[in-house]
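WARN retry 2 of 3 for item q-0093 after timeout on previous attempt; input resubmitted unchanged.
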Amino acid sequence: MHSMFWQLGCARTSFLLLLLLGVLPMNLAGCASQTAAEHAADVEATQELAAAPRHGNTLDYSLAPADLVKADHLGRVGELLHFGDEAWGILSLVLLLGSGAIAWMRDRAVKLSSNRWAQGYSFLFLFLLMTTLLELPVDLYGHHLSLRYGLSVQHWPSWFWDQAKMFALTWGIGGLLVMLLFWIIRKLERMWWLAFWCVSIPILFFGIFAAPYLEPLFFKYQPLEKTNPALVARLEQVVQKGHMNIPPERMFLMKASAKLSTLNADVEGFGSSKRVVVWDTTLARMTPDEIVFVFGHEAGHYVLHHILKTIVFVLAVLLVTFYVGYLFVQWSIARFGPGWGVSSQNDWAALAVLLLAFSIFGTLLEPIENTYSRGHEHAADIYGEEAIHGLVADPQGTARGAFDVLGKASLDDPNPNPVYVFWTYTHPSIGYRAAFAQHYDPWAPGMQPKYFKSKR
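OK item q-0093 returned
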């Protein structure tokens, strides 16, 4: 439902490897044309934020003075960390290549064994270890900030254990993808980018399907029906209203409070693995009506087919990314290969060159991807507010109240820099979401709901 520091603090390169090779789905989306009610609420919300001071409180979402100072500091540090981490990720790869460190890793892996599987996994281990260590100061500081401002309660030993588990997953799964990639490169020197994109399609589907089975490695889950049967009964009202196939056994409670203080809920997986997850921190701090709205938002992702649309978008991005990566590798090796110690695209060391291309291109694509994502999140907000109409006394106040609780729990900036929102936010700012929710009234005379037929 909202953006926050990535509490598990995974190494950027490790995550990038899985993300761009199709194992982890990006949260992307698209926009639809505005209805009259949506346009009116958008105008009101935009004017409300324009009238408020930058990084200051708005009419529909405000923080206490002390928390506003914290939010401002978190926002400013977050901007530096975000762009600094991206720049460092690119620079560190250039330094590793230019210093010969990547070639040294390749040489150690090749000398270790003549078996390509042993070589590939050995090289990847050394590469991930080095990049993880280079990213560690940023990750440590990010978790330190989360602890300092009460966004996390995860002790350092547990945090390091999560890093170790993520490293192992990245190495294990990433190794298979690397072996597949280089096998295709050897077979199709000029068209490997297209062939690998084709095989990434089933990999992407499998990755999304399998994600719910990996999450329990980091958090504990319980059937929501066993812990909160009364809440499940209310959530089923939203399910029935949207004609969805989300039975109670696909509703889960995640024990987020063991590590986090922030709130969230999400939809995971697809097909038989699709499920709705509500964090226990959300249950502890929100009213039942507000939780029903949060569920309505997540149900919107389900009903509006956001996962399928996301897959299509990701595949389009991957196709362009792989082709750009191919061109970049050819040019870079021809221009810098001798100095870097990278002989050809078949060289294990060429993986670092390819990831360098992905890092640069991914940074440029970020605002496009995030704009697309905000479109889906906005659509889910609208769906959630319409879905609870008739199920709660005040859908507008309920939705606004939910955003208020979410924002305060995460110390979200009420009115952040719009450029930063455009470039980095996967969701609209919490100040905008609260204002839009308060002003969105498709049941007023002359208006119509966007996703539900009016019963007036």
